[in-house]
């Protein structure tokens, strides 16, 4: 399954561009959230890790949607629970 993840930092920001791109890519499910990227423990990321299974593909519109810098993203992936 292709699972998309879309995030913006503030409530007044819009997710439509990301959702459109993820849909066009073929995402079968899109997890959305409006939450700062400075925190690793975000509700949408937790939902993403609870949703994915082995062999699923996670897509984002931009790598910056996962974290603010490379170290944040590596820490996020390293700390991710093992998938089913």
UniProtKB/TrEMBL annotation:
Q: Where is the signal peptide?
A: none
Recorded hits in Pfam families, A to Z, give:
Resolvase
The Resolvase/invertase-type recombinase catalytic domain, residue ranges: 1-84
Species in which this protein is naturally found: Lentilactobacillus diolivorans
The name this protein carries in UniProt is Resolvase/invertase-type recombinase catalytic domain-containing protein
Family named by the database record: Belongs to the site-specific recombinase resolvase family.
The protein's matches in CDD domains, at most eight in alphabetical order, are given as: SR_ResInv
